[in-house]
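pasting input
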Amino acid sequence: MQTPNEIIHQPIRLKIMAALNTLAAGQWLEFVSLKSIVDTTDGNLGAHLNTLEGAQYVLIKKDFAGKKPRTRVCLSAKGREAFAGYIAALHAILALETLDPDASGSHATNSSPDNNR
Amino acid sequence: MPPSVEEATRALREIDAIKVRAAGFQDYRAESDQLLLWGAAHALGFALSGLFPAFILLIWLLVVPISMGAGRLLARRAASEIPGIGWRYLVIIGAIFSYMVLIHVVMWPLSPEQGSMVAPLFVSALYVMRGVQMRPRYLFIGLWLSILLMTGFLFFQPVFWWWMTVVYGGSFIAFGLWLRRL
């Protein structure tokens, strides 16, 4: 079975990717807006964005709006592709469960998602 | 190691919830720009109506088209991915404006105060309908605007234009700022 992307599977990063995926390709979202949507702290969001940037899933742009510093985030093509793959993997797990209900027990016992990355 | 079925279900549910939240956020942000614009436009229009009552028609014939032009630019900036968003915007605002003109024709003669209530009450009703259909904050905006309008019309006639300038125009601006906070 295809294993869902471990980088995206972390709950906050999942929210970040899901929020950015709602935007059109090349559209940027301000850090403060993303923080409101994801509902987390500046530090937490910044740390997870760095992880996603390291994986080249997001692009981060820092500039000035007038005299005010502004940070904007955009989903990269690689990130969009990875997110689509992640969703496909989740659906595959559910589809497998529909075909073989016994398989869910073994998944539940064996699962240990890396939620602290 | 693949996640369990429960985890997969939870993750998909989380994605759906974020989609809804993000869509609401973007909708409120786009509406916020419009509320700030039309708040300023109404405040200016009503203040000028109070200062120069003989030129009310001319004032609004200038304020509304200029605001429509600015609003169209904001709508295109906020939702450039929607085909024909600029024209759709003009049709929606144009429909409200036309409705106001037609009501004047049907109900004539109207006092300037009565006439100036038509479009705002119609807009308030639209917000109520939008709130019921889509997002709860619009329902609150619509109800609040209706109450303010009727309060001004029924109880503050001597200072009607200033009521509309400060309270009605000001409420648009306050709601515009409110929608920026998710």
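fyi Chain A touches chain B at residues 1-4, 9, 11, 14-15, 18-19, 22-24, 27, 33, 36-38, 87, 89-91, 93-94, 97, 104, 107-108, 110-113 (CB under 8 Å).
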